[in-house]
Design a protein that fits this description.
Blueprint (H helix, E strand, L loop, with lengths): L8 E3 L2 E4 L5 H12 L6 E6 L5 H9 L2 E7 L3 H11 L4 E5 L4 H10 L2 E7 L10 H9 L2 E8 L8 H4 L9 E4 L11 E6 L20 E4 L4 E5 L2 E4 L4 E2 H6 L2 E3 L2 H11 L18 E3 L4 E3 L13 H13 L3
Helix pairs in contact: 4-5
Length: 312
């Protein structure tokens, strides 16, 4: 199958080859909203295509971008390799409405980019899809298709801009030159439904506090730092392909000495207690009273084997 070049190909700070969409115009509409973050943050770029927005984000901001793609994945991998950017985490998966809801249960994104993608999501109405995307985090920037030639007309015909949204612009459709609408909506997400993907338990007791300057959470009576990135268990279960398994293992090995020395014990080493940042990992939830061990080594190597076996 021959794929059309939808987005501009962005390489090392400039357009290498223009696509059929005006990506630069849309970026200028979006950028003033991105400038509001004065701390590390996490972005979900849903339907990342050739990575134009993901790449510009990690070039200009202290963020990790979780890029989701299913059709252009191989081409996107080539573009990311050419840029040598390591803060873009890639999930190769075609998400349904059910998948988006499952992701929302276990992850908190500061920003969700949903640019001309909601009408491609299967399994629900526009209102259900909009609600699911909104539940993923604090801020969503979305471009919606309104024109007749767009695919997914069952969704397009019911598409609307939420009442609380701010319209950022009306870029042109690549299909017929009519206007699409680019909008931003803000909504605070204060907790997660589950501690990690795959658990049958609704077992979290987080109280998340985030704004454009700070992000932290309260758990078991203590305030803890929130790291940019995505839970490693999510990456494993939802089609993670970048970084590679070998690179993830190397990151875990590199981070290990920070807590496995002297009297420093983590006590609950597991893949769901690792945050994958793209350029490294962070171990979280140490000394969890529900599962405390006195020696980390065995648990660490069990975790490493689980990561390796996830792609076998």
């Amino acid at each position: 199958m021959t794929l059309e070049q939808y987005q501009d190909i962005w390489v090392n700070g400039k357009v290498k080859e223009p696509g059929i969409r005006d990506c630069g115009l849309r970026w200028e509409m979006i950028k003033p909203q991105l400038d509001r973050w004065k701390r590390p943050f996490t972005v979900l770029d849903f339907g990342a295509n050739l990575g134009y927005y993901s790449l510009r984000l990690v070039e200009e901001y202290d963020c990790t971008v979780v890029a989701v793609e299913s059709v252009y994945t191989e081409w996107l991998m080539d573009v990311l390799d050419e840029n040598k950017q390591d803060r873009i985490v890639l999930l190769d998966k075609k998400f349904t409405l059910q998948d988006v809801r499952a992701l929302s249960e276990v992850e908190h994104f500061d920003l969700v980019l949903a640019l001309s993608v909601m009408h491609h999501v299967e399994g629900g109405t526009y209102e259900e899809i909009l609600e699911a995307f909104t539940s993923l985090g604090d801020v969503m920037i979305s471009e919606i298709a309104l024109e007749g030639p767009a695919c997914g007309q069952d969704i397009v015909k019911d598409t609307y801009v939420p009442k609380n949204a701010k319209v950022l612009g009306k870029p042109k459709s690549h299909l017929d030159g009519s206007e699409r609408i680019l909008f931003m909506s803000e909504h605070k997400k204060r907790t997660l439904a589950k501690s990690y993907i795959g658990t049958p338990l609704r077992d979290t007791a987080l109280d998340i506090h985030s704004d454009y300057y700070h992000k932290e959470y309260m758990k078991s009576g203590s305030v803890r730092q929130w790291y940019r990135g995505i839970n490693l268990k999510t990456w494993m279960e939802m089609g993670g392909v970048r970084p590679s398994v070998d690179e993830v293992v190397e990151m875990c090995e590199k981070e290990k000495p920070d807590f496995m020395k002297g009297d420093m014990i983590h006590g609950d080493l597991a893949v769901h207690n690792v945050i994958l940042q793209g350029d490294g990992v962070k171990f979280i939830d140490s000394l969890d009273v529900r599962r405390h061990v006195e020696i980390d080594d065995d648990w660490f190597y069990k975790m490493i084997n689980e990561i390796k076996e996830s792609r076998s």
